[in-house]
Amino acid sequence: MRILVTGGAGFIGSAVCRHLIRDTVHEVINVDKLTYAGNLASLKAIDNDPRYRFFRADICDAEAIRAIFEETQPDAVMHLAAESHVDRSISGSRAFIETNVLGTHVMLEAARARWNALEGAAKDSFRFLHVSTDEVYGSLGADGLFTETTPYDPSSPYSASKAASDHLAVAWHRTYGLPVVVSNCSNNYGPYHFPEKLIPLVILNALDGKPLPVYGDGSNVRDWLFVEDHARALLTILTTGRLGETYNVGGRNERSNLQVVHTICDTLDRLRPAQKPRRELITFVTDRPGHDHRYAIDATKLETELGWKAQENFDTGLEKTVQWYLDNEWWWGPLRSKVYGGERLGLVEDRKGA
Ligand code: NAD
Question: Topology of 2-193+224-254+293-313 in CATH?
Fold first, then answer.
């Protein structure tokens, strides 16, 4: 297949592109605007491959997207481009509505035009995979898991914009028959993760001997999934998922934020010993506004219906991730010094670019 991947220069999108080029025979068309979160260095391992092409474009630009579809004639779309950081959505929500809602609309319409023009087997096999988050389901209490039928109840501007885009994707299936599949995934971690997110931020601050910020009392729980397991899941859902269906993706690895930070500190103390235990750097800071308490995914449908299983558990995946950051300062060094140095984002009094 010739697969058009949006957001392929981001954290998960680049893992998808690397997986498609390294482990399959598919062709990749990467369409990315290269916002602060997009980084072509994450594609260094594959960017010379003749099966890989890159187009710099904004998914909100309907004319540019139409021209790319016309030039490349994709067989399938994996739509990952989004504004993805909850804290940034609190201090500046507009870009989230534009890219996540209006940009998804542009992608659905471009895909619909392409699909309408196809015939026979090519039309039957065309797919649009909309990649989303478990945050659309809101917050869980101490028990229970999100399933595909959990009602939507988003809390942040980010999750509300993703919820809107999920509804658009399903509506394009129901109204126009567009062959859409939706995936909702838990928190990802792994190599090439932009250092504003908890795990890479804590690894890099700990290496620098800087404070390790933990929101509230650190009891918020997330269900962690290694990004390469997610990339495999997305290809499985694209190729074998049932049309109009949603698949939850999760690694069955619930950890409180404080447990995550403790594990990173202990792993670094072992792999790169410092004078004092890194746990002493932990600093509790004001909680995120609207912070969901717990997310946890029931991935039974994906596991039993499509046969996917996570290969990494949190301990093996985190060890690989910490080692990757130790070995790849060429990738994160320029981001820390030039793009984002680790300052606090997303307090409600911030008014930047709302
Ligand atoms: P990311 O922020 O690392 O990457 C997003 C990419 O999209 C960047 O390369 C950026 O340049 C690009 N982009 C942003 N706006 C664009 C626009 N208008 N036009 C074209 N490109 C644009 O995000 P990520 O963590 O890789 O997430 C990818 C997708 O997966 C998102 O849809 C996100 O909602 C979803 N998701 C992420 C997680 C997670 O834990 N990171 C979990 C579940 C779902």
Answer: Rossmann fold (3.40.50)
Burial class (CB in 10 A: 0-12, 13-18, 19+), 153: middle
pTM of the model: 0.96
Q: Using a 6 Å cutoff on CB, does residue 37 contact ligand 1? A: yes
The reply to whether 135 belongs to the active site is yes
The closest alpha carbon to 128, from 164, 76, 81, belongs to 76
Domain residue extents for the chain = 2-193+224-254+293-313
pLDDT tens-place values along the chain, 354 residues long: 999 999 999 999 999 999 999 999 999 999 999 999 999 999 999 999 999 999 999 999 999 999 999 999 999 999 999 999 998 999 999 999 999 999 999 999 999 999 999 999 999 999 999 999 999 999 999 999 999 999 999 999 999 999 999 999 999 999 999 999 999 999 999 999 999 899 999 999 999 999 999 999 999 999 999 999 999 999 999 999 999 999 999 989 999 999 999 999 999 999 999 999 999 999 999 888 888 899 999 999 999 999 999 999 999 999 999 999 999 999 999 998 888 777 767 766 554 444
Q: How far is the CA of 273 from the centre of ligand 1 (A)?
A: 34
Residues 6+ apart with CB under 8 A from 244: 170, 173, 174, 180, 181
Output the CA 7–ligand 1 centroid distance in Å.
6
Residue nearest to atom 19 of ligand 1 (CA): 58
